[in-house]
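Dear all,

This email documents one entry for the complex benchmark we are building for the journal club exercise. For each entry we list the sequence lines for every component of the assembly. Then comes the predicted three-dimensional structure of the complex as a token string, followed by one or two observations. Please use this as the template for your own entries, and keep the labels exactly as they appear.
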Amino acid sequence: MDFIQTTVESFVSLIPVTLAQSLILSFVVLGIMIPFRTLNFPDLTSEGAFPLGGCVCGVLLAAGASPVTAILIALVAGFAAGCCTAIIHLRFRIHTLLAGILMMTMLYSVNLRIMGKSNLSVFGAPTVFDWAPFTRPGFPASKIVVAGLLALVVFLVLNFYFKTEKGTAIRAVGANPDMAEAQGINVWAATIGGVGMASAFSATSGALMVQSQGFADVNMGLGILINGLAALMIGEAIVGKQTVLRQLAAPFVGAVVYYQLVSVCLAAGMPPPDLKLATGLFVLVMLAAPSLGRSRGPLPERETIRE
Amino acid sequence: MLEIRSARKVFHRGQPDEKVALDGLSLSLATGEFAVVIGSNGAGKSSMLNAISGALVLDSGSVVINGDDVTALPVHKRAVRLARVFQDPMKGTAASMTVAENMLLAELRATKRTFRQGLNAKRLADYRERLALLGLGLENRLNTRVDLLSGGQRQSLSLIMAVGGKPDLLLLDEHTAALDPRTADIVMQATVRAVDALRLTTLMVTHNMQHAVDFGHSVVMLDAGKVRLEISGEEKASITVADLIGHFAVKTDRMLLAS
């Protein structure tokens, strides 16, 4: 009984902190979902774009830039990184996953160069969370309000965008690139712009994270991709992915639920080093679940990936 | 109007498996003309269509549509002028999107896409009306994902998408070959109705000799990357399946003699 009581107590006390963290990280999950689901372009750039955004933001904050400027420049840097991945894939016909690994590896050095050292403290610098109405700066509530509002705005804008004429064209590129091209859609431009936009969200998430935790670290992206993927799987399991609205809601719902689950595990005394194994196993189970039921059936359909 | 001027394309140049796909092929099609293209496998029919649509870059020669040289334009820029129905029903539609969204994409083929909402009541009413012409009940399934439709329904949808907006040139790439005879007939009848009503300049590739006899103003026979025979006017009106097959036979005999 004691164990359950302490677990519940520490979990409940962690809820606000975890919620703030998950709202900030929901942008990475969004940055993973957009290429993966709407462009059919499995992309690993976010593992490098997230710390890129963090490092850019950290350096700018240390130099005295305003927190909004720092986020906007981080966003642009992330966009450029995503564009590079897409161009590597399109121009040199390198598999999307390999293009992402190349970018992510190269970005590690870039991030180190940007910061000049492996971590940088920006504690005490002004952050966007200082401006939250009705809350005291520095407390989880202010982070929840700011990150939550931002997430809501991004969700509403994207939900509008993907139903516009331009947004429908982007979705067509993911659904059937040959058909999209035959309908007059510039597949290159749509892919580069779409993957760029996704990495911009990942970088924004990194920038927000740095402002939230008060320091930037080149290793802050380690494992972010698998966490994001796990969150996306949970989100899709809860809200589905049949419509634009549901598919867009999945990253946000998934991020919030996933990080609370992680918090439960930690509160129950799971050693943090085991977390990655647990997350990996969880993603594996989520991806494998649909095929378990038909192990004796006909050959499973191969997941198609753009070559 | 379509004009192909001495188009040449060689695959695997300089290698043992070198293949001349288009060997100085020239063809011209007047505005409003409906030509049927026949020829054995490997004659260059698909290469010709791909060269027109832009999917195949020519080694030399040029493609002119309505007086404008489009040889240097990529596929998505040529799409402003031409529409294509593929042989494979899966290829011409976006499977994970709805019927209405597919119609929208086709409607926007020749126009600039904006930040306005794509589907609105006016457009949906228009799509419903156009799909009703097929008589397949697609007009009541605007919000159905296309991958839930049958092959015939998908191909019919592709056709309606292609003829909408009255393209300068319509390319039909064996578009009834993958369908059962009854559905193929429905799609073919819908094709002829649309081509006649809109007076579309059309190039239809087919292996069906009966279709070649029944439809179109002219028959073009390709062989080894060149136009071997062109039948039009009076002669086309009176030609029979036996005559056409005869032309194939002549070719085969010549090949036998040559070998």
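Observations: The interface with chain B takes residues 160-161, 163-169, 171-172, 174-176, 178-187 of chain A (CB under 8 Å). Residues 72 and 255 of chain A are 23 Å apart (CA to CA).
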